[in-house]
Amino acid sequence: MKNYNPRTHYKNKSPEEIDPFQEQKHRTNQLIHHLQMYLTKKHIKMKPVMKSMYNSLRKKKQITSRQLNVILPYLQLDMKNHTKEQIIDCFSCVVRNIDTVSDYDYIEKYYPHLLDNPRTHPTPSTLEEFMN
Predict the structure, then answer these.
(1) Domain range holding 35?
(2) CA distances in angstroms from 42 to 32, 39, 47, 80, 104, listed in the order given
(3) Each residue of 104-128: pLDDT tens digit?
């Protein structure tokens, strides 16, 4: 799997420059990679569920939130510097019935200091400051 870091990849991009299909592909690949690791471990008992998830993701199908919850403890161990919410947001695009969080929104929410051009809510154009 190619090393892909959305924090650096989106550093100088505006939200309009982001390809949602690419970000979903890299998140899917990241989850597939984790599942492959878990399937090779002998001590893990949830292998049938993980194998089902792995096959679904390889077929470009989404998984359920219950399936994600099964592997969430393992993901939390592997992604120690992420909270449970961050992990769920990260893989939201591969889980059905969960609102998808884009890479840009994810970074803006958890790492806003990494963006050179964070989205801000524009203030209305008025001449008030010039009139005073």
Answers:
(1) 20-116
(2) 18, 8, 9, 22, 37
(3) 777 777 777 766 655 555 556 666 6
